[in-house]
Write a structure and sequence with these properties.
The protein contains 3 helices and 4 strands; from the N terminus they run βαββααβ. By secondary structure, it is an alpha+beta fold.
Length: 100
């Protein structure tokens, strides 16, 4: 089992729009890939104003299949590009963890 996570810090004044985008992009990813549900969390302490998405996959191949589907989908890419001003530039990062 692996867990993919992405985090990004919300830009000043964009909280409501960023939270809405986080929900919409998670729903769209599930619809496109027919993969696992994407969980969404908001940091309450630490990096306040940080949204985190996560999804669990059976293995790296399953994650890669979903990633390839999303990056080949124009609707997904357009939605991501439209949200560029919702997050602080350079704050996004991905992590993949393996269960032990």
């Amino acid at each position: 089992m692996i867990r993919w996570t992405r985090k990004a810090q919300i830009a000043p004044g964009k909280f409501v729009q960023a939270v809405q985008f986080a929900k919409e992009i998670a729903e769209l990813a599930k619809k496109i890939s027919k993969g696992p549900s994407v969980g969404i969390y908001l940091d309450s302490v630490g990096e306040v104003g940080t949204i985190r998405w996560f999804a669990d996959y059976e293995d790296f191949a399953a994650w890669e299949k979903v990633a390839n589907q999303l990056f080949a989908n124009q609707e997904y890419l357009q939605k991501v590009n439209q949200a560029a001003d919702l997050f602080i530039q350079g704050s996004a990062s991905d992590t993949i963890m393996r269960a032990i």
